[in-house]
Amino acid sequence: MRKKPTQQRARILVDSLIDAAGEVVARDGLEALTTVRVAARAGVSVGSLYQYFDNKNTLVAALMDRVNGDLIAAVNRVAPQNIGTDPQAFARALLEAAFEVFEARQGLARELMRHWHRLDIARGLHRFEQHMLDLLRGYALAQLREHPVDPSPARAFILINSVVFTLLRYLSQPTPPLFTREQLIDELAAMAARLITAPR
User: Fold this and answer.
1) Rg of the chain (C-alpha set)
2) Do the Cβ atoms of 115 and 163 come closer than 8 Å?
3) Predicted TM-score of the model (pTM)
């Protein structure tokens, strides 16, 4: 982003530009995104857009930040409600919340995920990874007696990245794979439970 909005009016403008970019991508695809189309969709001049965004790549980065924020908010919403469940049920709840984000906003997240290999996802992935590490540590503390969990950094790193890149690959498929979303969630939740359950 070229400059950060400090006044409420500027923040509203930036939000409207990000909303407009998301609508263009969700409706017409990432390839159709241009600063001219986004400005027109938001009802402002291209000059107003360029006050805050250098080019369409910075708009895409803002969209990725928003989706990442939505994912973090979704897992934060369901984690406390499921903190007392076993590891497989806990993982399932988080995965279902993630898929709700992927299907929201007219499929914006899904369209971005289809092109993940072309986008700069490192910063957002690091932020999400760190958040999930903290969440897993909290879950482990809550489960000390009922379901002992091993939240070691190596296991957590493997788990988080295995799930993230499996979802990226699943969402980027041009045609539906030979299994359902529910089957994918089942397998990922079972894998998560096996990986983080501490030996008794």
Assistant:
1) 19
2) no
3) 0.88
DSSP string, 130-158: HHHHHHHHHHHHHTTTTS-B---HHHHHH
CATH fold label, 8-54: Arc Repressor Mutant, subunit A (1.10.10)
Spatial neighbors of 3 by CB under 8 A, at least 6 apart, are 51, 52
Beta-bridge partner residues of 197? 149
* The residue type at 35: T
Which residue from 155, 152, 122 is spatially nearest to 137, judged by alpha carbons? 152
Looking at the structure, give the CATH architecture of the domain made up of residues 63-197: Orthogonal Bundle (1.10)
Instruction: Indicate the domain borders of the chain.
Output: 8-54, 63-197
Tell me the pLDDT tens digit for each residue of 63-107: 999 999 999 999 999 999 999 999 999 999 999 999 999 888 777
Tokens 């499921």 correspond to 82
Q: What is the identity of the amino acid at 13?
A: L
For residue 117, which phi and psi values (nearest 5 degrees)? -70, -15
